[in-house]
Amino acid sequence: MTVTIGRRDLLAILGGAAAAWPLAARAQQGALPVIGYFSAVDDPRSVVAAFRQGIGEQGFVEGRNVEFLYRFAENKYERLPDLVADLVRRRVAVIFANYGPTSLAAKKATATIPIVFNEGVDPVQAGLVASLNRPGGNVTGTTNLLVELAAKRLELLHEIAPTAASIGYLHDSAVTTVEEPSVKIVETSARTLGVRLVTANASTPDEIESALAMLVSKGIGAVLVGEFFFRGAIRSLR
């Protein structure tokens, strides 16, 4: 069932999918079941380490009863189809799609390999599942409803910087499943709060500096960073 659940529940779903990998397939390959970790960004080592630790808490230890195969697009979304196609060719037991366009790319790539997503959007609206209680097909997972929280994040920013008459919204339009609905929600919230919203798009790390410069030139007093954007591109500023 696709609901907002915790990390342990998500990892249990992944572990169960790996355990359910057909015995015949294992014998044919002569290998352990493989979990394909699929991300649109270059996830920090801490995130990957936490993922491996959580899987281990479910009884799955790398090299003993499961293997991991990682594919990172490093913010180059045009690579997603080829990366997930490689996971499908390697007949992984389950694909873990970590946020953003990876979930839809995985769904397009296979209708048989189980896909477990970790999303920040409404999975029904995004076209990932048929419904929350009956997702159907080979796709399930969790959502933390980042899009729905976009308005609240703007409200908190407005409380922190109440004198800011103009607020910039830095987002990545390439992540359409998250950013398109977020922009609409933030624009509505800005009108309610009585502040001017200035949006800036940066789809690659190289575009961040010019996007921020544009926002500054517009006289913004604070910046709200898009839900998915901060996970990858904003890290390049460090």
Structure report:
It is a single chain. The protein is of the alpha/beta class and 238 residues long. It has two domains: 137 residues, Response regulator (Rossmann fold); 88 residues, Response regulator (Rossmann fold), CATH 3.40.50.2300. It contains nine helices and eight strands. The strands form two sheets. A five-stranded parallel β-sheet has the order 2-1-3-4-5, sandwiched between helices. A three-stranded parallel β-sheet has the order 7-6-8, sandwiched between helices. Helix 4 crosses helix 5 and helix 6 crosses helix 7.
Low-confidence stretches: 1-7, 23-29, 230-238
Name the overall outline: elongated
Count of separate DSSP helical elements:
9
Beta strands, count: 8
> What would the average pLDDT be, to the nearest integer?
80
* CATH fold-level topology of the largest domain: Rossmann fold
Strand and helix order? HHEHEHEHEEHEHEHEH
The top level CATH class name of the largest domain: Alpha Beta
User: What is the name of the CATH superfamily of the largest domain?
Assistant: Response regulator
Tally the structural domains: 2
